[in-house]
Amino acid sequence: MAEKLEVKELDQVVVRFSGDSGDGMQLAGNIFSTVSATVGNGISTFPDYPADIRAPQGSLTGVSGFQVHIGAGRVYTPGDKCDVLVAMNAAALKTQYRFAKPQATIIIDTDSFGPKDLEKAKFATDDYLGEMGIDPDRVVACPMTQMVKTCLADSGMDNKSMLKCRNMFALGIVCWLFNRDLSFVEAFLREKFDKKPLIAESNVKVVNAGFDYAANTHQSVPATYRIDSRHKVPGRYMDITGNKATAYGLIAAAERAGLKLFLGSYPITPATDILHELAKHKSCGVITVQCEDEISGCASAIGASFAGALAATSTSGPGICLKSEAMNLAVIDELPLVIVDVQRGGPSTGLPTKSEQTDLLQVLFGRNGESPMPVIAATSPTNCFDAAYAAAKIALEHLTPVVLLTDAFVANGSGAWRLPDIAQLPEIHPHYAPAEQKGHYTPYRRDPESGVRYWAVPGQEGFEHILGGLEKDGDTGAISTDPENHDKMCRLRAMKVFKIPVPDVEVQGDADDAELLIVGFGGTFGHLYSAMEELRAMGNKVALAHFSYINPLPRNTDEVLMRYKKVVVAEQNLGQFAAYLRMKVDNFVPYQFNQVKGQPFVVAELVKAFSKIIKN
């Protein structure tokens, strides 16, 4: 029978795994996306998990999701709606079906749809499919729990351990549906659980059982599907998250600059994975310190920077609040420091696992005094590598703290990343004090063109100096309260940041004759680009200017923004970037599209809103 089933070629597909937070949906989704990246597909992922540390089993608030968009070519977003929904229990079906397309295939574990499960999920009847208006012909109904128990009956595992393998049965079904080679999955599992061979082999056995079950029953689907890659640049690829890419970017920058990398950090969702990843790379000269709080995390990094390391600290919005005083110390001392802010929903504790762009004005202005600081925003999970590398290069070459903005969507999401050749990355030249200054070095003597002070690492004879939080005389480096000197130093620090060379903002799409220019920054790039392409396909003239460099802004910002009759600034806050641009660009009055939902933009909503602006 297997030979009779048609195999259809697809350009793209969206799969969403969902279940209890303990059901391993993130792992199943990660494996499927990794396998897809390995065979050359473009991918974009969106882990969507609850903020609860552990919600009650089967509850509506405890559902964890992982969505992956797979394409034959480059993929820009995780997709608005999914083509395949895996729902491991009744609560998952109840909460996640709204993310499914009307014609989506639904895969469920019927053993988790008993009376108690339906009650917890707030179903009124036992006809849960009819209650939700789901066509049974689109449902792959499988008793996964019972089949996993049968599969592992001779394994010697206890019941709880066996049930943890259910996610692999579901993954096996999905792998069959999309003609995935299970050898990649098996290799992933054996590597992940290399110290627990029983767990590894049990998961391998279950994923094969799920694959075979689907292959033998065909599960009422008319066809299986294949997504072949196209236009792929030769090279070695991996599925990488934004946080891991950020860590790799910092490691690469330290290597290129010939420095040790130091990270002082305090665990905070959703930035902790940067600390976890860097802690694995002591062999690369990486030093990590898990500090007692956010303040010491930043302060220890400043100490490492003073001592001559490439120093970084990682956090989220609440941590930026606490680090602000130490960040200001790095500003007045003019020391290189990379501050990674993985933005999450706020204010206060807010929505720890959700994504926003609401820290922009905080990192630009949220410190006392005139405190200029470069700000860079990463545009995708894979771009986090380039953004982290660029932030480190600016910090070391211009002797300044630099904020790298990512967000929970970019940091936890992943994409297919081509491993770079380190030797091909831009060179990094820390702005060291030249030998001729020996014996008469002062810490705020500057390069006359760039305005950057010269960096002397402690321990060098003839370069002894003192730094600190009190204002210093620009000539001697001694403490000074002179009003003229303070005015001069404030202007010098601001001018140094203003002079940092950054690339011009690129206008994509109908750059010459657009009816509407879409403007965004950071992690919304994929959604805004996709919306632009859909609008152009509908016959509209639309362009996109997406900003990675926020401070200083690209030199062509004024010209680009004032070139078009209609400009809309779209951001996941209530208008912070629009306000900043109005402050920087005279007579700039844009339309605005703002959402603060803790979720990525929906491309269909963007297209609808932008169409109205064009027609008006």
UniProtKB/TrEMBL annotation:
Gene3D superfamilies: 3.40.50.920, 3.40.50.970, Pyruvate-ferredoxin oxidoreductase, PFOR, domain III. The keyword Iron does not apply. It comes from the Bacteria. Residues 262-445 form the Pyruvate flavodoxin/ferredoxin oxidoreductase pyrimidine binding domain. GO terms for molecular function: oxidoreductase activity, acting on the aldehyde or oxo group of donors. GO terms for biological process: response to oxidative stress. The keyword Oxidoreductase applies. InterPro entries: 2-oxoacid/accept_OxRdtase_asu, Pyruvate:ferred/Flavod_OxRd, Pyrv/ketoisovalerate_OxRed_cat, Pyrv_Fd/Flavodoxin_OxRdtase_N, Pyrv_flavodox_OxRed_cen, THDP-binding, Transketo_C/PFOR_II. Keywords: Oxidoreductase. Residues 22-212 form the Pyruvate/ketoisovalerate oxidoreductase catalytic domain. PANTHER family: 2-OXOGLUTARATE OXIDOREDUCTASE SUBUNIT KORA (PTHR32154:SF20), PYRUVATE-FLAVODOXIN OXIDOREDUCTASE-RELATED (PTHR32154). This is 2-oxoacid:acceptor oxidoreductase subunit alpha. It comes from Marseilla massiliensis. The lineage of its organism: Bacteria, Pseudomonadati, Bacteroidota, Bacteroidia, Bacteroidales.
